[in-house]
Structure formats: structure tokens, C-alpha cells
Amino acid sequence: MITVTAEQILKPGTEERVDALMLALSGEIFHNEPGCTRFDYVVDASNSLRRLVVETYRDRAAFESHAATPYLAAFLPHLLDCLVEPPRVVEYADAFEQARTAPFFHTGIVVDDLAAAVAYYSDSLGVRFTEPGTFDIPRLEDPDPHPFRLTAVLSMTDAPFLELIQASGDGVVGPAHRGGIYYHGYWEPDMSLRLKELHAPGGVGTEGVFRMEEGGTPFSIITKPDRYGNRIEYVGTDAADPLVEWARTGVLPTGIGA
Question: I need a labelling partner for 136 at 20 to 30 A (CA). Which of 146, 168, 173, 197 fits?
């Protein structure tokens, strides 16, 4: 992920013209650039002639594609005509990129009082936690299939994150599993293949399989304990961006929880 800021110092009297130019540009980006995940245009609260553009792109290719668009080329001369000097552009790299790419990304602990556990680990470890995320899961197989509501938090740290899970029900995250580390979480690019391997001869099997629908590709799998007594949670890599964003900002992104 790439974030770019561009500071603008406007000539007096050009505010409305620049606002119109920026509105038209943002419309073009919204309709033509799915790789641009953020495009904000903000004004200095104490100086209306100082503006800032904040843009985020999924990757280098998306950013380079934006830079090569004909509407950006047509826009720039009109913008420069309204500015005291060319925009001051700064490019930023994603400090959390490792969390999206490192296979081992979190450790899960089941607790019987989420608020109390957050207070305890915040004090003892000196870390902050996200707001609670509540996930309505259409189908949890542990082993019998049923809908399930899971509530958890992540530590706002570098990966591997600490995940605290509110004990609920009598299945994979029930009170029987509280105390100690419950599992270690790994990203998995091919969840269907991983599930087959876990149930193949010699595989450790599964305690919990999370799906959106019967027969659908799992988005999370919790294994049975291996020969050393450890469980692994495999999480589909499609969830990497929103989960890392949750840990980074503390706020659960729209779409991964309800």
C-alpha cells in the first residue's frame, strides 16, 4: 500500500476554482481507479489557502496507473495556474505491510470477560487494544453447523497481534477453552486446499470451520491440537487488509463485522 500527500498553497481568490477542479478529479478517480482506496481533500482550519490531498493506493501498479491517466494530465496545468508554487508531494510506505505478508500474524486467547482482559493486558503489557469487533458468522461447524456471533479485540501493535476472544457457547470458543494460548494464527492463501490437507490421512483434523454458506470456501479454520498440544488458526488472506486496518486504527472496517 502506498500513501501520498500533496500540500497546496492557493493564490488568493482561486479557492472555488480549485475546489471545482478537485471535485471533478475525485469523480474520475472514483469511477476509474479501483486501486485507489482513499482520496481525501482537506483544508487547513486556520488558513483556507492551504489544502492537503491524501491518496492511498493498493500497490505500486495502482499508483503508477493513476499517474498515467489522461484526466490527471489535463488537470495539472489548471491546478498549477491556481497555486503559489507546485504542490509539495510526499510518498509514504505502509508501516504495517509486514503484518499482511508474514505468515504468523496473531495469537488467540479465550477469556471469560473481554473488558476485564483488555484492562489486564493493557496494564501488564503496556499496549492498547482495538474497539471490540462483533462478527456474525452464518455457519460455524464445530462439529455441527450453526450460526454464531464472535466478539474479539486485537492489540494495536506490530504483528504478531494478541487477539482476545470473548468466551461464548459450548463450542470452539466456549469457556472450556479459556486460559492460556488457544491458537496461533497464520494467513492461508488456499483455504480449500488447507482444509483437505487437515482431513487427509495423517492430518490433525479440525475443531472449527467458519464459512459463509454450506459448502463454501472457509474463511477461518481452527485445527485440533497437534502432537505438541498446539492449535493453529488458518485465516484466508482475503481478510488481511481489513484485519490489519482494524489493528492499525482501532476501528473495525465496514464489511468484516456487523
Answer: 197
Task: Look up residue 119 and give its three cell numbers.
Answer: 484492562
Residue with cell 494530465: 73
Last residue of a domain, one of 64, 93, 122: 93
Confidence (pTM):
0.65
61 and 121 housed in the same domain: no
CA distance 66 to 49: 26
Along the 258 residues of the chain, how does pLDDT read in single tens digits? 789 999 999 999 999 999 999 999 999 998 998 888 889 999 999 999 999 999 988 888 889 999 999 999 999 999 999 999 999 999 988 766 665 666 899 999 999 999 999 999 999 999 999 999 999 999 999 999 999 999 999 999 988 999 999 999 889 999 999 888 999 999 999 999 999 999 999 999 999 999 999 999 999 999 999 999 999 999 999 888 889 889 988 988 764 444
Q: Is residue 254 part of a domain?
A: no
Task: Provide the domain limits for residue 75.
Answer: 2-93
